[in-house]
Write a structure and sequence with these properties.
CATH topology: Four Helix Bundle (Hemerythrin (Met), subunit A)
Distance between the termini: 19 Å
Number of strands: 0
Shape: globular
Radius of gyration: 17 Å
Structural class: mainly alpha
CATH superfamily: dinb family like domain
CATH architecture: Up-down Bundle
Largest sheet: none
CATH class: Mainly Alpha
Order of helices and strands: HHHHH
Helix content: 40-55%
């Protein structure tokens, strides 16, 4: 385990809305906002060096890689698969200096957590703007598979829940933080 000294406090507020009786759309959006906040809080307050660490072998996951990955996830689902924009990767494939197909997870040595968060929050804002004007039953615009916005919301909650668990383990190994 990393040093368990003074831990920097997360800055992203955790939503505290009671979703237990919310209508369907506010409930789906509320859970997505909650998991986005928990995810961000897991990576806030660490240095770039700490964010690059892969402290849970044999996994090569890092907080930096997870933030970059979730920026890609937000972009892919909203802009490409739902809105029909061209698929232009931010961090993997041709966008990665080594052409790494998993380049979102494998950050180059000069990548920073601040840059990853800038891309992440931009993609979250863009995704929210795209989804805000669509009904839950609207189908994605690209590909043979057809999924409604409702399905995409549920899938994103599932994706965040999985990666929040990964981030929990990594962050605890870095500095002992266990809160969300």
């Amino acid at each position: 385990m990393g040093s368990v000294g003074a831990m920097a406090e997360p800055t992203t507020p955790r939503p505290d809305a009671d979703l237990s009786t919310a209508a369907e759309r506010p409930m789906l959006e509320g859970f997505l906002q909650y998991y986005r906040a928990v995810f961000a809080r897991k990576a806030e307050g660490v240095t770039d060096e700490e964010a690059r660490r892969t402290p849970c072998p044999p996994s090569d996951l890092s907080l930096l890689g997870l933030v970059r990955h979730m920026a890609e996830v937000e972009r892919i689902w909203a802009k490409w698969l739902f809105h029909g924009d061209d698929n232009v990767p931010l961090f993997y494939g041709d966008a990665h200096p080594d052409g790494d197909g998993d380049g979102d997870f494998h950050a180059p040595v000069d990548a920073t957590l601040a840059e990853a968060f800038e891309a992440y929050w931009r993609e979250v804002r863009d995704a929210d703007a795209i989804y805000a004007v669509a009904p839950l039953d609207q189908l994605q615009a690209v590909g043979d598979e057809r999924n409604s916005l409702r399905w995409i919301y549920v899938h994103l909650v599932e994706e965040y829940a999985r990666h929040c668990g990964h981030a929990d383990l990594i962050r605890q190994a870095i500095d002992g933080q266990v809160d969300d």
